[in-house]
Amino acid sequence: MINESVPERQGAALVFLFIIGNSFVFGLARWAGRDLWLSFLVAIVLALPLILVYGRLDTLMHGQSFSEGLHRLFGKWPSRLVALIYSFYAWRLGCLVTGNITNFVQAVSLPDTPQVVMASAYAILVLWAVKEGIEVLARFSSVMVIFVLLILLTALALATTEVDLQEFFPILYDGFWPVFQGAFQLLDFPFLETVLLVGLANALTTKKNSAYKVLIPGFLLAAFFLMLVASASVAILGEEMYKITFFPVFLAIARIDIALFLTRLEVVVGVTFAIGGFLKISVCLLVASKNLAHALGFPDYRFLVTPLVLSIIPGSQWFAKSVMEMNLGATKIAAFTDVMVQIVLPMIFWGVAEIRMSRVRKNKAGKPSGI
Amino acid sequence: MLIVIVLGYVVVGGVELFLWKERPWQEVLVYLLLLSATATFSVLLTIDAQLPVPEPLGTLWNWLQKLWQ
Amino acid sequence: MFFWKKAKGERSKAKGLDRLSTSLEINVKWLKSNLFADDDTIVYRHFRTKEPQARQCVLIHADNMTKHEFLSDYIVRPMMSSSLPKELQGRRLIQHITEQVIQSDGVAVFTDYNKLAEGVVAGSGAVLVEGCNHGISVDAQGWERRSVTEPQTESVVRGPRQGFTEDLLVNVSLVRRKILNPALKVKILDVGLQTRTKVAIVYVEGIASKELVDEVFQRIERIETDAILESGYIEEFIRDSPNCPFPTIGHTERPDGVAGKILEGRVAVLVDGTPFALTMPYLLVEAFQANEDYYHHWIAASFHRTLRYISFFLTTSTPGLYLALVTHHPQLIPVNLSVSIAAARKNVPFPAIVEVMVMGLVFEILREGGVRLPKPVGQAISIVGAIVLGDAAVSASLVSAPMIIVVGITGVAGFVVSKLNDTAVLIRILLVVTSAILGIYGFLFGIMGIMIQLASMESFGVPYLSSLTSLTIQGSKDTIVRLPWWRMVLRPRHLAAKNRERLQRKSRSKTK
Lengths: 371, 69, 512
Hints:
Chain B has 69 residues and is mainly alpha-helical. Chain B is built from 3 helices and no strands.
């Protein structure tokens, strides 16, 4: 019947929700304090070339999945090793996000519910979604993105009553270093986590070059919104408050109080967090299962989903034991693995792919696509 | 509690294997291995909630620092 | 083994006998003793043609399935008054009769009993002539029909007042009168081993994709069942996601509805014996559309659409949200409201979940009781339900007053989206359960689960959410809002992929 590949806009919606995901309730770029909007700009400028590289990789591997592309590039065993690394990275990220959400929910609204219950509920949903595959996730996010955008825009609009622009001055009082620190942290989390979508964008698109149309708008929109939300939080709470609270955005929205009726809006933040987080966990687990399947040499990934998804229940508690540690874990400066996975390895793939591609072009002029 | 957890995993694995349309032995083997690993993981965490996260890169880093000095 | 042999033997014997004999007497006898044995409604009308070649003839038809005047005026009378040429015999005589004597448009010649019997039970008259081993069947269907009236289930304030009837050909003609274009194709199949129900597949060639039409054909041809008594049978046999309560095939009683759907590239299936036509593929947005949306001003129509979406949200979510807020997050309710709810619930002995479940159940019982009762009694039921049960339950402190409001909102909002009423009940129960476990997050999990299910569904290869997920203006022109007709330039992407333009350039430029 009609061959349904996910159109670019659905892909962009997926990327948007993936990046917004669990990140926006945290104090992003908290080192930068009142200059965090500068951090955001720097991070966007730094991330954009890398995201372009991700897009280029997708275009080069057009029509193939990430693991197939790796196989073409490096041969059997190295590609399996790389797939294993990515699988682990994705799994760890999934665990972290789950930990974040369960912690958040327990901290702000359901103090008596054990985290395991929440994690298990997530696991069930994620299990289902991952088994359905990337198309379903993209459709899901293109419906949800409307709600998330509406919620965020409404919250931001209402928050203008509380905003105090004086909080942003003086600019660059502490110099450039905190700004860069904040920017690097933003790169690691959440901007360059987009690397996980490199393999999936192939499933998202049928047309050549549309990987850019998926990744770039999604990324820019998400980054822009994160910047708005974080800046608004600083403007509402003030720098000091922003730095010391765990969930500054939550706190900032909680300040909104219009005519004693529009209060308690922070619950919608929780809603957004839960939706975005769900999508992020699902994408992580999807990537983890796909890459693990490739590493073990299986063509289909679906049979691996159940054990992997179930393992995020203990994993979420393992990686994020308390709100404190979770915050450190989520916002620490780029760890070695993250740099490897987000920057070094994609660069290597890109280089190798370009070289191979040009050779193919020389050998068989006129034969398109493939590495 | 432990028994409940293990039983839960056994039930999940059993039901899911039952639902598979075909069962190539490699897939079943990998599936069972992963599931039992997950179960072990859960059990370990239930016994000791403060289970340390291994940091191979951290040890490597420390070792390198020592070497530097 | 033995039985099988016997059955086979009987069949071959029947095969040897199933051709008409030249002897009229044998034919009639055989019919009376075999195919039409024990059937008293079959009429055998014997008559003779005029000299010089006077032949004994018989007209066989099923009583009340045919028009009597028609049979006597156009078959019996001409045959009795005509004199057949002497030299014609057998096959050529029959041909002469069909060409020169019988004055009817639907005439066919047959040679075996089964054809005769099929025709007779379907309402044709069969003419047998002495000395010929051929018979003539003449279309003379005529039975009691309900007239074309306004449909009960989909009445409109503005719009045509025609509804389908139980007669397939009348229904097809109603659709054809909407689309006076030879591209409108109607294919008729027989489905049901016992009932042999006529099923018409209607589509517009050039708009509906070939693959879709073929798929519908294949799925219907694959049905091998005894009976098709209503289009619901077919729906259940050919639909996607058969275990999901969301409908993946639509049904309508309105010819204008069917015409609108097939002009967008869908396929309609009309079934003899029921006024409900099926349309496929069916997407979620269609459940929120009404014919009238397209006849009213577009702003009004969009407003009504939006109301329907809101109502669907209310009818599915109110009890769950109420439960989540009252039991898990009382701090989220504004203080005054929270206090009054708490005051109302103070004397109620049951936990909120029991209240919600019991009241939901009572409401469903009242509704189910009211649906199929005669109208006066139905009203009595709703009065008893609303006033007596509701009011008495509150004053007896069995149920809190806010709960009555919740049930009331749920119920009334449910009637707005009547196409999803049964689905809404199930979703409501699901959301109540999840909210009871995890509060507002449980509620959210329920919603996300439903969204995953919806996102994974397809109807005849078209994603179930397709217009809602397009994220473009042209793609969502007919979803939550209805844009004016002069803005609906393209047909839906998934339905009419090859022939998308429905608004010609001239009218587009005129609007500017």
